[in-house]
Design brief:
By secondary structure, this protein is mostly helical. It has a domain of 28 residues. The chain contains 3 helices and no strands. α2 crosses α3. The longest helix is centred in the middle third of the chain and has 16 residues. The relative contact order is 0.04.
Length: 91
């Protein structure tokens, strides 16, 4: 049951329009981008990744995947297999 009164002449704002970025989120991205530029940008990230194999694993395992799209367009049959529990705690 709707407990809100019906005001047919009330114009609602509706919030942010579709496609308009969140200002706080964009400001945070801008700060991170500027920090990365000041820290050496692309050349420094490459240098850091080459300094230690662990750094390169972090780059490929945690940083790079954030750039990949979150959706996949699949065709055909898809099978997902979950590993069997090893003990009662895994169930």
């Amino acid at each position: 049951m709707d407990h809100q009164p019906n005001y047919p002449n009330l114009k609602r704002g509706g919030g942010r329009k579709k496609g308009v970025p969140n200002r706080l989120q964009q400001a945070a991205k801008d700060v991170i981008e500027e920090a990365a530029r000041r820290l050496g940008g692309v050349n420094r990230v490459v240098e850091w990744a080459k300094e230690d194999p662990a750094n390169e694993r972090v780059f490929w395992g945690q940083i790079y995947p954030k750039l990949l799209p979150l959706t996949a367009h699949l065709t055909g049959d898809v099978t997902i297999q979950w590993p069997e529990p090893r003990n009662a705690l895994d169930e």
